[in-house]
Every structure is written in structure tokens, then in C-alpha cells.
Records
---
Amino acid sequence: MNYFVEMNSFGSKIKNRPMNDSQYLLKRVGFKHILFAFLGLIVGVGTARAQNRSGSTNQLYEWGTVGAVNDGGGLSISLTVFDHYKNSSPTMPVASRTVPTVRVVPAHGSFPKYTFFVALPPGSDIRVRILNSQSTAVGPEAPLIVAGYQYAGDSTSISTIYQTPAQVGLLPVQPLLKVEGYEWYRGYKLARIALSPYQRQGLDLRFSSKIDARLDFEAASGLSRAFGTRQKSPDPHFDAVLNRLVANAGELSSIATTKLLFSDTTGSWIPIGNPAIKMGVSVDGIYRVTFQDLQSLVVGASQIDPTTFHLFNRGKEIPIYVAGENDNQFSAVDYIEFCGLRNYGLKDYRSIPSGNQEYPEYLDRYTDTSFYWLTWGGTKGLRMDSTSLVPASTDTLSWYTEKVHVEQNTMLQFADANDLVVRQDPRWTAGDIWGWDWLYAGGVFDAVFAASDIYTGFPTARIYARGASVTWPNGTPSYRVRLRLNSSDTLQKIDDSGQTPQILAQSDAPIAFLTNGTNIIHLHSLATPSSVNAIWFDWAEAEYPRKLVATGDTLIFAFPWLLSPGLKKISISGLTNSNVIIYKLTSRSKRVTNAAIVGPLPFNVTFADTVSPGDRYMLCSNVTLRSPQSMSLKSFVNLRDQSRGADYILITSKRFQSIANSYTTFMASTYSMRTTVVDVENIFNEFGYGYPTSESIRDFLKATTQWQAPMPSYIFLVGDGTYDYKNYVTN
């Protein structure tokens, strides 16, 4: 089954929707494509509220009622819980389901659990005390245990399958009342309280229908639990939502509205009030920015003091080389050079995720392009060191470790078919994988790669294959895979006993099995007891010893397999141009200035350096130097400015700026609200280092809680949404 997805307004995903061909988060939009949400946590489960003159409140939910009285030191609450299985029409047990068109997905059996929210002072946590409870015995044939879910075709139409205690046996139970965590909603701190009315007394199961409890406020992290004054909201719609969300909303007249505290790490590098040049880099290499490049974008480029050039990537300053900066004037023959890398994933893409971790990607999921920011003015910028003083060496390195990564992303799949709840989780999870193709039991997946100039003096290469298993029903082993290279025997076998659906096959391979030219990594899948046995194949990779031979007068090389670090002589052959540029990428990058060129054609270049396994080098000629694929002059509007204020925020792109302005003008005049239109690119630049990510929108929304009171009530996203950020699926 194919799972196509869309983004919702908070950067989450909505699965099983038709996929469009948009590349970024906001594109090709009319008003029929708008996405609307309240700013914050919207949970509309309450249906009615009553408040009496004594200050107590009573909230009606689908599962029962919550009465709350606040005495300043905590909440006294009274809960009435409706009888779950007497007030519902439970479906038949899983075993009796025989309709072939209905998809049944089992769940880990569990007793019903309900959740509600209470507000508390911003510097406090909650301690729960049960004062009294009334319970009745539950028979073994009561259909109350959630055993699975079913759907037919459209997984948005899901019904719950119940079983009885007699069918499932003993199950663990949760505490009667438990604080599951804390949330912030538009300046209010909320405690998320879980109610588990089914409890055991010995071997007997009992249902608690009435509970009296005390929720004591306790100071958290040394902060005061003092109450403040709530700001009166001019928005009745917001008040209505708050009243449905919070069990003790009637008491909020004595609780302060608090600005959201969050770790704001993406803005400290921004030169507010000064221009900057945003540069896109999609290929690893050495990049040069000339005086003419800057002059085409910046008026008065010749007046810039080149010693004040700074280069940033993801908020971190990158060392650069600036030719001709010693005269403190940027002139026609001057230029800037830096080592640029494409936008690789920030996590180890070979790691196996667990729990709530996301699936690690080889390249960033949003874009392959890295964004570098060139600024100027103020302090002197970070510069490259040189290797001019490195002594000579006779210990020559003649090969390096070449890495070849092969991957094709054709479809987004979820690789844990047994968990329907996690499948519908709108966030990226460990099972959400853009992959290549399916590998079924009895089949083999072949990943083809090319190798050249193999160094046979080292005994082995290393190969990898990555994927995830989908089996139904679960059996042991859940999958059986075998890894091979070309005509080799099995190099690794994995018979998984159900610990993880994630697969990383890896093995050393004798160098004799690797050939110059075409090679194939084979991943075999063998039969298992499961009737459905499929592997979603993601990527394959090979590492092999390669001679230090340039290709097209360029070479990027490293020595991760170096056994004896230290002073080495590096010798590179195969050059057709004697004008070469070499950089070393390490914690303190260097420009190699002690290289010697030996001719005639083809040229050899040699230099000495202190080499460690983590070092990486880039070489090119003056002809194969790269230019950024995009360069544009930007200014920062300072969306963190706390003098800003709005009730209604509309986020869109420049394409819809005019119609967005007209719409917000109408909203402001019709509903007497403060409105503002925000260009999504400004959000990406100021909260995402220039990268088009949904996380940057989320961080921007957090920052708006620091704006002038009252905080924004509404966020309106005008744009298109997709999971296919890179246009893998064109139709």
C-alpha cells in the first residue's frame, strides 16, 4: 500500500492523502488550499461547562465529568466516569472477524484511559493524591479492552475492536490518576492528567465510577508558584476554546499568562540591520566568490573591508580564504574561497532509531542544498590556516578510502505495518522512510555501483545495505537476509527474532571480489513463517581503497582507515592542470600552500601534512573551481522583535503577498483584530538558517509569544503542503 502525505500547519503530516508535486512547504496556493489552526494545542473534547458562585467549575466530557475547586494551593477535583462498555456498542472480538475487505490491525491490549487538562501556576508542578473512590466489580466477559483497530480502504475511518478480560488474560494497569506531562497553551501551563478507571484488587478487576482527589501545586525548578493576573482576552473564540480544553478554566482569572520559554538557538548569528548574501551549494567542492559576483548584488562593494567578511552555515562561522584582503579594500582581483558541502543529514544515517527517534536520512529530508551566509562589517572574520610550515616527510600515502552511496527515493512508506496508531502519527517517526523499492521473500535486490583505480594492496572493501522489514503476522524470525558482493558467497546473514524492523546489513568483502567498473551489492530475502514478508529497501553503500588519482582535475579524499596517524607525504596523480588548489577540512581548516607540482602531463602533486583518520581534503584546479548555484542579497526583518504584536498571523510566500494583504485588511476591519502578513522565506532565514523546514515555522510561532500582549490567537497558513519536498513523485 502506498502512503502519500501532506503537511499540516504545524509541520506535521497527514497520511493517506493524494500527493502533489510541490517542492517547498508553501507553493501553488489559492484560498481553497488554505490550512487553518489555532496557535497552540487545540483539543476540543469538552461539550459543556457549569460554574457556580463559589468558584467551582464542572466540565462535561464524552467519558465523564470533572469538577474542580481552586483554593490557591491546589485543586480539589471530583470525577464521575461513565461506564465504558455499558454506554458503547463494542465490536466483536478479533477472532470472529471474517470480512475479507476489512483490514484488522492488532494493538497491545490495554484498558481504557482518558485524559484531561488542568491549568496551574507557571512555576509549579502537580502532586496527585487520591482521597476517595467508589468502585464496582467488572465481570470477565465485559468487552472493554482495546485489542485492535479496523478499517476498510480509507484508514481515516477507523473503529476500535474490543475484547474481554477473559480473552486476553492479565494485563498491567496504570495508576488511577497520573500526571503524564505538561503543555503550554497560549501562555497557560497545563498539566495533562491521565485517568485509568479500571484497577485490580488482587485478581479482581474493578471499575472506579467516582473519584475524589487532590492536585497539589508544587514549585518546580526553584520557581515561584505565585499567581498573577490573567490578561483579559478580547477574542471570544479563544475563550471558548480555552473553556473546552481546560477542566478548571473558570479559575483562570487568577493565573498569569506567561510567555513561552524555549531554547531559541537559531538567531544569535543574524546581523540584524545589516545585509547578507545567501548562497546555495548542492555539490561538495571548493567555491570561489569574486569581486564581480558581489558587485552585481551590493552597491559599494569596493568599499567593503574584506577582513570583516564572515561566512556562516547553520549559525556556525566557517573559516574562509580571502585573497587580497591585506590592503583592507575589496578590489577587482580579490576573491573569497571556501569549502562547501551539500546538505547531508544531521544524524548518523547508519544508526538504528529507537523509541520516538526519527529515521535518519543520508541527505536532509527537505533539500539537498546547503545555505551559506556571507556578511561583512564589524569584527574580523574567521580565516583558514595554512600548511606552509609543515616539514617534509617520506612516509607516503598513495591511497584513500572512497565511499560510494547509491540510493533512489521513489515512494514514502511506513515500515511498521503492525502499529496503526504510530502509522497515523503526523510527525516523522522511525518507520517513515523514503525508499527505493520492495524486496519480497525469495527475491534479491541488486544495487549497482561503479569503482575505479582500486588499490589492491589493502585486503578488503566494505559494503552496506539498509532497509526495513514489514511482516504479517509476526513470526520468528521476522526476516532472513543475506548480503553478497558480485559473485561472492554470503558475507553476512541476519535472522531477526523480532527485536527491530530496521535492517543494516554490513560486511567486509575480500578486495578480489571488487572490480574496476560495474559492481553489484546483492541483498537476498529468504522465506519466513509470515504470510506477508517484505523489505522496504532504502540504500546501499560501498567503501573501498582507491589510488590517489584525480578525476577531471578534482578529488575529495579522506583516510578513515589510517592505521598510523602522523606526518605523511600525500601524492596525487592524474592532473591535466598544474594550477591546483587544495584545502584540508578539519576542526581548524587549512589551505594547503606547500604543494609541489611535478610534470609533464599528467601532473603529480605532493605535499606533507599531519594526517588523522577524521581529516578530509578537497582538490581542484583553477578551471574546476565551483560557483554557488544561487546568490541573493537578503535583509533580516527581525521577527523576534518584541515590539511586534498581532492577534492574527497569516504566513505565505511572496507570490501571494498582495492577496494576503487584502485578506488581512478585511479581517482587521471586520473583526477588530491586529493582523500581520509574514513571508515564509523570512521565517526560514531567521529561524531555520535559510533552510525551508517546518521546524522553523514552529520555532517562529513560539517566538510570537514574546510579542506585545495579548499573544496571537490565530495562525493562518496560505500555501500548499507535501511530504515530497524534493519532487520524487512527479505525478
---
Amino acid sequence: MKKIGVLFFVWVIVITATLNGCKEDCEDCGPTVTSQLIISPEQLSFNDIDTVIVSLSVQPPQKFDWSVSSKPDWIRVEPSSGTINDQILEVKIIPDFLNLEEGLHSGAIEFITNGAGKAQAELQMYAQAHPKIEVTPMQLHFEEETTQKTFKIHNPGTGILQWQLPNNLPWLSFSFYNGYLYNNDSITVTAFVSREGYPVGTQEETIIVMSNAENGNIAMTFTMDVPEFEAIIPSDTAILFNYFIDQVELTLENTGNVASDWNISFPVDYLSVNPVSGNLAVGESVSVFFNVDRSELSSDVYEATATLAFGNNEQKGLMVTVNHYLEEKWLIDGIINDAEYDRVNDVIIAVSESPNEIRRFDPSLQTETSTALNLVPLCVSISPDGNYAAVGHVAKVTLVNLNTMQIENIYNVSADALDIVLAGNGWVYVFPAQNQWEDIRCIELSTGQETLSTGYSIYAGTKAKLHPSGNYIYGANNGLSPSDFEKYNISGGTAAYMYDSPYHGDYSFGGDIWISDDGSRLFARSKNVFTSSENQSNDMIYNGSLSGEGGVQTLDCHTGANRIYTVFTTGSWWEATPGTEVRIYEAEYLGFMGTQEFPGFLVPDGTGGGTFFDSHGYFGFINAGGTKYYALVKAEIGSGMLNNWAIVTLDVE
């Protein structure tokens, strides 16, 4: 054991001497113990606006050169290299966020030495939005003839740029007033100028483009050259003469910068204006009144362009629209309950309530005479010679002289009249409205005595017409199934039931009847046509039908003109509504020829315009010459008109 201890002691002395000798021989020799570069902290989290510090040191302390060997692009390092010895060195890490997307970015920074190794720190940086704004150009000049130019707004930064332009500028406006731009996006904005109302010279406006950009708001300067110019501006370029408007007021204003003459002209003679010309100083205005002369206009929409001329050959077009409705109907008052036509005198004889009157209308002259009635009129009949009319009431009949329009007599009747026939034999025949099986009331006009028809009874509600021969009355019963026609002989005064048609359900009749002017045909409400003859075997024989939908509301036949004019009904059989057109047939073969629409009722809407309501034809007649068709029409329900009846005149085609 002693031997080993001596040997170890000797070995330590030798080694120590050797080391000391080396130190004496080489002053510049490096350390024999390994040093290590230390970084603190080894993990860093920061925002892009923060500067952070890391500490570098060498353990054990020795002198070394150091530098940054790698780093992310989004930081700068100060200092980025140097010498380290026994001190603790602070190094700044500074964010460099130019065009860096918003969000969390990760990376590492590495430091290296020439003998103490290297060290690394992990980095996490949150990049915020840093929008910036660029505007090019920042000055815009509008020459005399220029009214618009463009400029560009650009976001060279990161995040969303919000920008806004002022919108209350007197002569400057923009295609866009605000918006959003993502990083590196641009928008082109058009600037517009208006020179109206500005004096000759140059106008200048400086605006501020507001934004959330880090580099602040941007000032822009706009200049505008204003030459002499003339401008007469109308308050409206579209002039509407609605149906009930004959004058329209317009204002002309001088928005130019010099006084100007003006005048208005028209290409049509139904328009005029007052005043037609004048002179306006700068900023002045004048009212002009446009007028329409409707005297030569027909129902249509008329359009014309008026020309407003001013200054040095400057012109503006004014579109003028005239809505015109030529009222060709003869508007009448009252509620028409029944009407017949007198071809001897070419007049319509009608009875109305509100007021209770018998009325004589001459459609060709549009003249009317009337006589007040003591009772509500229910039906009317004209004598074949046109001299008298009989009016049926509740339990009364009024006889009226149509030449004098005077009441000559009032007769008591033992029934309420649904229909009435004034024959040329000195008798009047009343067809009862009620009580099912009834008799015709026959009244001798000279005595006022009432007798009852003989033979079979009739059914209450029967409608009747006098045959042109004057010897017979045909009736169409109502309320019975099947419906039928009947014939009564009146040659002896008191009506005598003769017979009904040979059909019982084979052909429909429908409850009303019309007779051709030559007496050869009978027309049923059902549109079926039957013959008329004094020979029973040929009487009321089916002869054909009128084509079309619905039932007959009114019908007239003019054999000389070879025409049948009729109005059909629409809707259900029991709630039928008279149609809005007349249907035309040729009389010889019953061939359909076409239709003519009744002109509607134009009702004012209170604002100068109007609403059209359909005309429904209740009674219609062909005049003696076969050239005109007269219809008593009524406005559709809901028109709001107090007087909603009229007489329409159509040419017979």
C-alpha cells in the first residue's frame, strides 16, 4: 500500500509540473475546460409591437466571438454579433412586421460562437393588423370639358383597411363613398363634378380620406375649371295629362352662370304653353303652364316631345303624355227598370225610379223629355203606333200620351205587374208577378173595365211580347220545368189562351221571349230560335240557335238590315249578369259575325286619373233605318257612381 501511494504522489507532481510548464511556454493557449453558450430565456412569446430581450452568457466565462446564425424574417436582432467574455450580454429582438399576415407566427433564433457552441430560443409572435393607406394621385384637376376622373385607394399594409370619403360636397361626388380593402388590395374611385350654379373661374376643394390606417388620414385636393355655360333646367322632363287634368305647371330654373333666353315648342297642335319664351338671370326661375286641348282627340294615349331650347343651340326634350277618354256614352240619371224602342219615332221609352218617371230618349239628338209618375214603375209597353205607353205598377197601370208626355189615365188592376203589353186594339194586358197559377188582366182603355183571360191559366212570372200582327201575344213562362212558350189570341179584346209549344223538355226556352220585326221568328232566353205562324202545326217550331255561351239578356232583330244584335249573360242561370259586349248575327241564317265591346265608365280617382269600370248591357235596340244600335248600359258593381246608367250608340255593321 505504501508503494502505491508514493507512485500516485509522484504522478501528481509530474502532471502538475507539466501543466505549469505549458502555461509558461504558451501564454495564448485556450482553456482546457469546455465552455458553453447560455441563452435565457429559451422560450419567448410577444406581440409584434413589443421589443424583447434575451441574455447571452458563457459558462465557464471565457472570451468568444458570437453571431446570429438563423432567425425568422419577421424579426431584427440588435446587436446581431459581437464578443462575449465574462459578462451577461443583452440582445434585443425587434419585430419586423412589414406585410406580415395577422395571426400567430412561430420560429427560432440561433446564436453561434467560435468555441462555446451555440444556443437557441423558441419564438412565438402574434402579428396584429396594420392597415395602411395610399391614394394616387392625391391631386385631381378637372379641365373645362372634363366631368369625371379616377383615383386609386390602396392598402399596402396588413389587415383590413376601412376608408370613407365625405358625401356632402357641393360640386364633387364619388362613385363610392366608403369601403373595405384587404392587404394589398386596391379600388378605383371615380370623381364627378357638377358646374351648375358656379361662376366662371376655378373651384378648389380639399377633402380628407378618413381611414383606420396606421399612417393616418390622407388629404386630397380637387380643382375644377368653370367656363361660361347656359343651363335652363325644368322641374320635370315628363309631363302627364291624366284623364281629368288639362293643365300642368312646370318650373324652369337657370342653373348656369350666365343669363339665358329660352323658348318651348311643340310638334302637335293640341298642346300649348304659357309663357312660351323668356329670359332668366342666373339663379332665377319661372313657372310655365302646359295646356291640352282635347276637343279633337279620341280615346287613346297620345305622346309627343316638347322642345325646351335655350342659350347657344342648347335643347332639352320634354316627354308629354296625354291620357284621353272621349265620353261617347250618354250619361243618364235614375235607375232604369224597363225600356222598349219605338221604331215609328226612333226613340227609347224607359221607366225609372229615383226619380219615378217615364222618359223619352232621342239617342240621335241626345234629348230627353220625361213625366213624373205617382208610383214606382215596374214595366213599360209602347203601342204599335208609338203614340202611347202603358206603365205597370203594383195594382196600377198608368197610360201616358207620348206625344204630349202627359198622363191620360191611371187604372186599377187586381194584380202586381211583372210585364205589360199595350196592344193596338184599345186594350192593355198585365201579366201578374205573383201567386203561381194566374190569369192575364185585360183592361179596356176606354172604360177601365178589367176582365180575366180565358182558357188555361198562365203561371205568375210569365214574360210577354206583342206579335207584329197585333192579333197575338206570345208568353214565356218562368218557374216551371220544363220551360215553354205560350200563345194568346187578343183579337177579341180579352186574351184567350190558345196553346203552348209542341215541346216539353226537348228544347229549352229559359223564361223570356223576343220577336223578330217581321214576326217570323221567336227568340228564347236559352238562345234557341223558333218559328212563328198562324198555323199551329208550324208555330213555335225549333228553327236553330244562336251560338255562344250564356243566355240572352236583350235582343233585337232588323230584317231589312239582316242583323240580330243581342247581349248574352255571364255567370249562373239564376244569378246571371248582363255581358259587356253586343254579339252580332246575320238574321237570315243566324250566322255569328262578331262582337262589339261597350265603352266602359271612367270614374275619377281624385288625383286627376281614373279607374275604368265595365259597362253591362241591359236593354238594346236597332233603329228604324237599321244603321244604329242603342244600348242602355249600367256600370259594374262597385264603381262608386251615384248615376251609373248610360246610353251607348254603336254603328250597325
---
Amino acid sequence: MTERSQAADAAVAGVQAGGAAVSTSSPPPAALPPPPTLPPAAVTLPPLPNHGAPQPVSGAPRPAPLDEADEASADEGSVAHEVWQLLPSWLTSVVVHLSLVLLLALVTTVHAFRNSTSSTMVSAEGDGSGGEELSSDVMQMSDNLEQLSAVSPGLSELPAPTAMSDLIGPISAQLSTGDLGSKPAGGGTGSADALGVGGTGEGNSLELRLSGASRAAMLRSGGGTSESERAVTLSLKWLSEHQNYDGSWSFEHQKSPKCHGACRDPGSTQSKIAATSLALLPFLGNGQTHREGEYRRTVDQGLKFLLRSMQTQGDVGSLWEPVGTMYGHGLASIVLCEAYGMTRDQVLQAPAQAAINYIVYAQDPLGGGWRYEPQRPGDTSVVGWQMMALKSAKMAYLRVPPATWKKAGYFLDSVQGERGAVYGYQNPDARRPATTAIGLLCRMYLGWGHDQQALQHGVQILSQLGPSIDKTSMKNNMYYNYYATQVMHHYGGYPWQRWNAVMRDYLIHTQATRGHETGSWFLAGADHGASIGGRLYCTAMAAMTLEVYYRYMPLYRDQSTRE
């Protein structure tokens, strides 16, 4: 893992001041009485350095004679010098000391003022859409990264969280001990107009998850069954029973207080942020929030863990960690954006926007992608989670600079093959089924229409591959299944019906039904995530795949999700 550089010092340089040294070597005029004798000062300050004029050089030629104007100026200087010589030595000392005190006060004031004005990392101006500002607490992004850097040059120097130990802190002390925001009077979740965000369309599809009737209708129309929904219900129960006391989850699920090793197949990755985020997503997908639902306390504790884990600098909030990398940050950003979008809890608004701001910062400034560490040349796998987070942010009416979407499109151009029908990992040659599914889903987010020829070709390729199950050569690749299922669901029609029948029934039949493992999955095979993420990873991915019917509105059947 590449070690991140230390944070750049944002303090301004100290102000240098100078003046000629005072000479007291000439004796006073004979006509005047000598000055009174005073005791010596306890501390003798050195004379101020003369930075205003060059010092005379030994052996230098004498200057040319002065003209009349210069002579007049020299005479005036001589008079001032004589007056200065007439002053008592104690008065001279007082004047010098007072000058030093005023100078130091001026330097300190300027230093503090310039530091305070340089601490903002993100432009305070909005992206120009929607009229009124969200609120005084909301981070608002500039419309493009060039403006962002011009207004806040410090953003380009923001270090990774491992180098921010002296600059970060909890985003709010309230979040670590108190409750999240209370539900608005009347039980409503708010509207785009009320928030002043100028959203378009007929509503926020995230809010539709909260209605049991809406979920049931979308389940039926999308091809779900009572058996598939029962499998989701059992998975939520299993996930809730493997939460830790601090609200987190671990891929080493057997260490949770209620499991005590009763469930097999633990993972090995140590990222609690990634594990917690993956575990929370199925709850949110099923309409469970920290305000309502059977598992509201479970969700509440999980959200508080993420908020306590966030590291902040200015208006940027990082959930990056050396193990979870940008994978974990992307997942956590989706959680915060969805939780805010579903509830309009104002306590979640600022952290959700801060997490999105970090994704904007972490984008590769040249290639437009995302990698394990911020601002590295991207890969399609990491790009997928960041793009889903940005999409969730837009659905929650948060700010995403248009330039971020545009640069992400440039990255997809760099890894595409067959004119955009297939996608590689970091270049077009490394084509994989999973990266092809991710690339196509991202193209949908970026606005490709249903009639786009490359999209149609890509859907045909995925349809020919089919879901990855235990009887295929690409055995049990849930990473591929998760993304490809979304692509096929958005595309709709016969390709989706055919895909769904196989994927849905396979997950229903492979879910554990005995002992403490009931409701979980462990699907060993071609998916590397299963080996390092274990049963928790497989359960979360399978549950979200079965929630596809109501988790997102189909892109080509509802304009409100394509803002």
C-alpha cells in the first residue's frame, strides 16, 4: 500500500518588517544638560534588521554629488536626526519597545486571519441548479473541478486519512452519543421544493422504499415472488444477529456477540467500515431506516458507527482506511446518501455531502477514474462503487459537480471495447464479465438511452453469459451477478425476464436454512470477494440482488430517477 504524503501546511508566511538601527553613539550637544541616569534594562532587545535598503559595502565608490532636491531631502533628514539625538535615552527605549509590541500584534493578527480564510476546502457556491441553497450547514460544490481548485487550492493537497491525524475529528460530538435527527412533524420526509434543491421529476425513488404497498407493487411488476421476499426477510434477521456492540459489522462474523463461532466461512478482511456499509445496504433497500421499521435500532447504531468513523477536513469527509480503501468509502457513501434521501434527517445531510466531496476529490484528475487510494489511475471495479454513490447522491438531491460525471465518462472511454459494449479492468484488453456489467451500468447512469447500439450489444453479451451459478464455468461470481442483475433489470423486456427467472430461483434455493446460519449465503467459486469477505459479503450481495425489484426504479421506465 503506497504511503500517503503528510498534509501540506496551509499557514501563511510570517510578515517581515524592518527599519534602520538607531544610533546613539553621538554625544548630546554641549548646551543641553546630560540625560538622567537610569538603571540598566533587565532584557536588551537586539536592533531590528534593516531589510529596507542595502548595507554599504567596504571599498565601494562614493556616490555622485546630490542635486538640489536631494540636498533638500538630506537637510530634512539631518534635522530629524538631530531631533532624535536630543531625545533622552529612556524615551528612545520606550519608543523602540512599543514599536516591537505593535509589530508583533500586527503579524499575529494577519497570520490568524489568513489561516481562518484558507481553511475552507470546497467552494461555498452551489452548482447553479435549483435556486435556493440547501441550508447553511450543507457543503455545496462548484460546477467544475477547475473552479473548485481555483477557489480552494488546498483541496489538491489534502492527504489520505492516515496522514490527517492532527487535522481531523468527529464531524459532530452529538453523533457519537445522542440520537440522530427526529422525524419531522406529521411523519413526512420532506420534498425537493421544501429543501430548495430544485429537483426534477415526480419524486425521490429512495422514498418509495418506505411504503410497503409501493415495494409490493414493484416486487410483483418486476418479477419478484413471495419466496424471494421471504429470503430477503431471513437475510435481514441473520445480519441483525451479527452486529457488534459498537454498531459495526465485521467480515469475521463469527466474533459477533450472538454468533460465537456458530456460523462457518468467515472472511479475512479487517475493514469494519466496508463490512458495516455492506451490512446496512440490504436494510435500507428494504425500507428499514433509523426512524422506522423492525430494524430501526440496528440501522441507527450502524449509522452512528459510520459517523463516528468519518474523518473530516473542512467540507470533506473521509471514510477511507488502509484496508477498505476507496471500496469502503464508496460503500459508506451510498449508505449515508440513501439514509439521508429516505428520511431527510438533517443530521445526515452534511456527512452525506462530505462523503461525496471526498469522492470528487479522490477522482484521478487525468484519467477520471478511481483506485484504491485517492487520485490514482482508476480501475473499473472501484469506479463502479463510486458511481453508485454519486447516483445515490443525485437521487437524494445532493450536489455532484458535472465535471465529475464527465471525467468518469472519459475513464470508461479508455477501458471500453467493441465501441462500448464490453469493458476491461484498467485497459480494453483486460475484459471480464464483471467489469463489462459495471461499465454498462455506469453508461446507463451517464445517460445512454435504451436504443444505444453499444448498450444493446452489451446486454446481449450478458444475456448469453447468463447468471453465474454453480453449474456455469464462471461459478458463483456474486460480484458479477450483482451488477449484471441491475443492468438487465434497468434494460427490461425479455432479456430481463429470462435472467430474473434463473437468478431469483438460484438464490432462493441456495440460502442456508439450518441453525444459526439460517438466512445467510456462502457461495464459493469465482468471486474473490467471497474468499476475503466470507459469509457476510455473500449474504449482503445476495440480499441486494433479490431487492432489485424495488431498490431502484428502472431507469428506462421512470424519468424521475434520471435527473
